[in-house]
Amino acid sequence: MQSLDPLAGQIAVVGSGIAGLITALELAPRPVVLVTRAELGRESSSLWAQGGIAASLGPDDDPDLHLADTLAAGAGLCDQDVARGILSDARDAIATLEHYGVRFDRKPDGTFSLGLEAAHGRRRILHAGGDGSGAAITLALAEAVRRTPSITLLTGVEARRVLTEEGRVTGLLLQTETDAGILPTTQVVLATGGLGGLFDATTNPSGNVGQGVMMAARAGALLADMEFVQFHPTALDVPRTPLPLVSEAVRGEGAWLLNGAGERFMLDTEGAELAPRDVVARAIHAQIEHGQRVYLDASRVLGPRFATAFPTIDRLCREAGIDPARDPIPVRPAAHYHMGGVATDAFGRTSLAGLWAVGECAATGLHGANRLASNSLLEAVVMARRAAKALDETPVHSTKVSIRTTLPRPLPRSDVDAVRPIVSRHLGLIRDKAGLEEAIRRLRPLALGDGPASDPALVALAIAGFAALRLETRGGHARRDFPNLLSNAIRHRMTLDDILAATADLVPAKPHLVSEYMT
Questions:
Q1: Residues 347, 56, 111, CA angle at the centre, nearest 5°?
Q2: How confident is the model at residue 336, as a pLDDT?
Q3: Cα end-to-end distance, the chain, whole Å
Q4: Rounded distance, CA 19 to CA 378, Å?
């Protein structure tokens, strides 16, 4: 690894999805080190996003209507003030993306072409390149980053630990396959994405196993809402890992969900195929549990227009031998998005001085218990801009942090193989007490060890610990033994020490073990 000494004291941004790229760009001309373990923008869920970005820009829409839909989907756990602020910044977020070269789809009259997705009361989804929106946005931002001289790229480098002294960030432990080094810095932004790779069935890159959550937790930062994992209802049900996504926009165009008997089983549910994702995912799961295969049929509404409307999905289907213009598309739920993560305020600050978190690894309170479709890309842009502004206005703490005379040896390469079966069996779409306790019993020794499974096991243990506390079914957290919604909506926030204490005896944490979030 090249010497990191010349970069000492610069802001470090970890991750090159949309949130990380925007953060680095918005900090210019201030020097920034952008750390990414893969080629710029390539190993991120942003790149794979099909649905687009939600923004209330239509003539019949406004931020209040968008907020109402967001709160309804969030099942009582959204932070209303945070949500209102993020959604109200949508117009500026879109303008920022266009400034950096993103070209959104427009109608012949020049206005935005707005799509409809589940649980949205208006057409408010902007796309760039149809169902390849994530790739179009990410690649445009990546090119803008390459043209920005204030950004130093460290590609093929993985951040493994946030280093601290006296409760404040002092550096990052970085490593490659063969080498390790310490980047001295007092300001770190985590933009590492989600944790879908902990599950067998996921639409995320398999390497996304909650690295940012892990690093923040080990450094002592508060985590929030870790139990809420969103399972996308319609992943393409084919023997492939990760599973390709069949965008919600297909249902937005009127496609029906059918079981193997040809029955439209969502018909009596409010919203039908466009009900909130947790509702649709559980309905499909119930069909599968009863031995039915589930299909998404777009032939009636799209037919030969499918390839034009959804070229990426059309290609993925045809690679699996399916003609979506004529054939029903086999689908199943798959881990897709994490509503929880590192607890932050409205500007991306965590409870640890010098540490910020943006994008999917952060828990702002926007999504509550269940993310409204396409709000995530909007949140990534808005929160990245806010974090950059807050960083620019924050006095730099002394950068005279110690640089070790002997370089550390690389930590063992993380290996999720021992963790994934536990997570997939016990922390999936439907949970119960016995499964959560079994997960905790098996994950805890892995998380407390120093082997290759330790880091992903710690993240999985956090999910299990938070899930054990929630004795109800709410949003993305469904319990077979507690199927009802409690009248009081409570968000949980815990440090790693709290989680370890809460799971020590396989019992829910006592109230005094749950840390209060910073005011």
A1: 125
A2: 94
A3: 40
A4: 10
Catalytic residues: 277
162 SS3 class: strand
- For residue 320, the model assigns a pLDDT of 94
Listed in sequence order, the DSSP H helices in 226-374 are: 248-252, 277-289, 306-309, 311-319
Give 133-163 pLDDT, tens digit per residue.
888 999 999 999 999 999 999 999 999 999 9
Residue 187: which residues within 8 A CB-CB, separation 6 or more?
11, 12, 169, 354, 356, 391, 394, 396
In the predicted model, residues of the chain with pLDDT beneath 50 are 405, 507-519
Q: Residue 152 burial (CB < 10 Å; 0-12/13-18/19+)?
A: middle
Per DSSP bridges, beta strands 158-165 and 168-175 are: antiparallel
Domain boundary residue, one of 287, 307, 334: 334
Residue 251 φ then ψ, to 5°: -70, -30
**How large is the C-alpha radius of gyration of the chain?**
22
Q: At what angle do helices 375-393 and 133-146 cross, to 10 degrees?
A: 20
Measured CA angle at 422 (ends 440, 221), to 5 deg:
55
For the domain that residue 417 is a member of, what is the CATH number?
1.20.58.100
> Residue 91's CB: how many other CB atoms inside 10 A?
12
Question: Do 329 and 427 lie in a common domain?
Answer: no
Question: Looking at the whole model, is its pTM more than 0.90?
Answer: yes
| Burial readout 320-343 (b: 16 or more C-beta within 10 A, e: otherwise) | eebebbeebbbbbbbbbbbbbbbb
The two tokens of residue 24 are: 């680095």
Nearest CA among 313, 365, 316 for reference residue 339: 365
User: What pLDDT, on a 0 to 100 scale, did the predictor assign at position 363?
Assistant: 98
Query: How far does CA 325 lie from the centroid of its chain?
Result: 31
Given this model, what pLDDT does residue 514 score?
40
**Amino acid at residue number 78:** C
Task: Specify the DSSP element, H or E, that contains 12.
Answer: strand 11-14
**pLDDT on residue 43:** 62
DSSP labels, 90-126: HHHHHHHHHHTT----B-TTSSB-EE--TT-SS--EE
C-alpha 287/C-alpha 429 separation (Å) is: 13
The residues pairing with 258 across neighbouring beta strands, listed in sequence order, are 295
Instruction: Identify whether 466 is part of a domain.
Output: yes
Spatial distance between the Cα atoms of 70 and 517, rounded to a whole number of angstroms: 23
Q: Which of 334, 360, 394 is the last residue of a domain?
A: 334
Domain that holds residue 312: 232-334
- Say how far apart CA 133 and CA 137 lie, in whole Å: 6
pLDDT number for residue 125: 94
pLDDT digits (tens, 9 = 90+) for 31-80: 999 999 988 866 666 665 556 899 999 999 999 999 999 999 999 999 99
Name the β-bridge partners of 341. 224
Find out whether 372 and 13 touch, Cβ atoms under 8 Å: no
